[in-house]
Structures are given as C-alpha cells and as structure tokens.
Q: What sequence folds into this?
C-alpha cells in the first residue's frame, strides 16, 4: 500500500490497518489525528510520540495482540490478521530445536507469571536461542524496569509494521 492509499482509506478501514501495527485502541485513536500523513519518516516519528503518551494499560493491551515467542500454533489461529508479519518476525523460531522451543515455552510461562503479560521482543532477525537468552535475562528485571523495556520493544515492532504496511 502506498502512503497516498493509506491516507485516502475510509476512517474505519484506516483504523483497522493501524490496529494491525499496534493493538492499542488508544494509540490507534490518537494516530488518526495525523492523517493524512506527509511521509513515512514523519509518520514514524508521530507513531513514537503517540506511543510515549500511552498509559501502561495501553501498552499491555498492545502486548496482548501478539503471539508468544515460539508459539507457532497460536500465531496461526489467533493472530490471522497479522500472522504473516508475526511469522516473518519470528522466523528464527521455525528452525529452532525442540529443546529450545520447550525452553521458550517454560520461560514464557515464568515471564507471564511474574509480569502479568507476555514477553515482547522485536524478534526480527533474532534466532530462537537469542530470543530465549533475552527472555531469560529480562526475567531478572524488576516489574518497573521490564514494562519500560517491553514498551520500547513494542514501539520497535509498531514502526516495523508501519513500514511493512506501506511496503505491501
């Protein structure tokens, strides 16, 4: 889709496309004020500024719109609208050993138990073992530190998805 095409979408369809990039209703609602957008660079800056205005609850809402790292079945079933992007983003998991997949599942469980939301990482270009290492390291964080890290990772994902949206 071109920027012109995105700019000229009906409001509801524009919201749906933005929602694929970030699953926070507040973020989508605030982003609507920046359309029509002049260019991608400006749109990415606006997206980050809007994200910074979102609350922790908004962040957690966005996190809930991602499959768990390594949960390929969930990715296919529950996240059909963003499944292709998420599959590409988590492509490092497709070649992982069964041992690594099991370790990811256990670390995901521990993470969600500790922090109350799923582990968020900008997975593009990362192997399953690298993501497992990051997950295990981040399990050591305090809840206050981890929510900030997770929000930063979501911001990276959102911007990548906006770029993908305009590349499609």
A:
């Amino acid at each position: 889709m071109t920027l012109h095409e995105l700019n000229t979408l009906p409001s509801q369809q524009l919201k749906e496309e933005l929602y694929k990039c970030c699953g926070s209703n507040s973020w989508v609602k605030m982003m609507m004020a920046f359309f029509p957008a002049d260019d991608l660079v400006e749109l990415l800056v606006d997206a980050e500024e809007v994200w910074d205005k979102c609350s922790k609850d908004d962040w957690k809402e966005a996190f809930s719109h991602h499959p768990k790292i390594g949960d390929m079945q969930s990715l296919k079933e529950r996240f059909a609208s963003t499944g292709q992007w998420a599959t590409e983003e988590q492509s490092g998991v497709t070649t992982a050993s069964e041992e690594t997949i099991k370790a990811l599942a256990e670390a995901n469980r521990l993470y969600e138990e500790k922090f109350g939301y799923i582990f968020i990482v900008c997975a593009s270009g990362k192997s399953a073992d690298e993501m497992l290492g990051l997950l295990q390291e981040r399990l050591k964080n305090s809840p206050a530190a981890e929510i900030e890290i997770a929000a930063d990772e979501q911001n990276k994902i959102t911007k990548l998805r906006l770029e993908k949206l305009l590349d499609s």
User: Anything to note?
Assistant: The two ends are 5 Å apart (CA to CA). The chain has a mean pLDDT of 89. Residues 3-61 form one domain.
